[in-house]
Amino acid sequence: MNLRDKLRGLLVRLYARRVEGHLDHAQVPKHIGVIMDGNRRWAKAAGSTTVHGHRAGADKIEEFLGWCSETDVEVVTLWLLSTDNFDRPQEELVPLLGIIEDVVRALAADGRWRVHHVGTTDLLPAGMQHTLKQAEETTAHVDGIVVNVAIGYGGRQEIADAVRSMLLDAQDKGVTLEEVAESVDIDMIGRHLYTGDQPDPDLVIRTSGEQRLSGFMLWQTAHSEYYFCEVFWPAFRKVDFLRALRDYAARHRRYGG
C-alpha cells in the first residue's frame, strides 16, 4: 500500500468517527433491509472472476452485521438470492449456491445472530433446505439481531405464498371462502408473509448505484426509507453504512402525506 492509499484510508476512518460521533442512536432504524448488489461488477473491475466477486460479497456480511450490532438495529434482512437468479448459467449458479450455504452455516456458528429464512424452499436444493432448517433451529434461542436470509426470494412470490397460506389456514379451520372474503384485510395478509411476526423495514439499502427495489419486500416496504449507495457491495465500508444511518435520521418520516 502506497503513502497516498494510507492517507486516504486514514482520512476515511477519521471521517467515519466524526459521522458516528454525531449519530443520533434514538433515530437508528430497527429493521434494515439490504439489497447486496454489485458483486459481479466489482469482480470485473478488479479483473477477477464472478465467483471471486460472490465470495468477496459473502465475506462482507460478517463485517456489516458487526456494524449493526454496534447500534440499536434489531432485524437485518439480507437478500442473498432472488427467484430470478435461478435463471443464471449453471457455472455461476452452482458455486453461488455453495457460497450462500457457507454463509448460512457461518451465521449460525457465530453465536450472535438468530437466523431466519425468508423465501420459497421449492427452488432450493435439498442440502440447502436442510442447512437453513438447521440454522434456524440452532439459533432459535439466540438473543441477538434477527438475520433474515432471503434465499429463493421474490416479492411477488411472497405475496402469492401469503395469500395461499391464508386460504389454507382458513380451510383447516373450516372457514368458508365467503367468510374469508368478508374478513380479509391488510393485517391478515401481513401475518402470513415470510416476516409475519417482525416489524417492517425502516430502511432499505441498495448498493452499486442501481435505484430500484427489483421486487424486494414489496409489501413490507410501503413506508420504508431508501438509501442508494454508489459503491459495489464488496467495497461497502463502515463510513457508507454510517452515512445511510445519518441520512435516515435526517429524514422526516411521514405516512400517507
UniProtKB/TrEMBL annotation:
CDD domains xref list: Cis_IPPS (cd00475)
Keywords on record: Magnesium, Metal-binding, Transferase
Residues binding Mg(2+): D37, E225
Binding residues annotated for substrate, in chain numbering: 38-42, 54, 82-84, 86, 88, 206, 212-214
EC number(s) reported in the record: 2.5.1.-
Residues passing through the membrane, by range: none
Cofactor: Mg(2+)
Protein family membership: Belongs to the UPP synthase family. Z-FPP synthase subfamily.
Protein's name according to its UniProt entry: Isoprenyl transferase
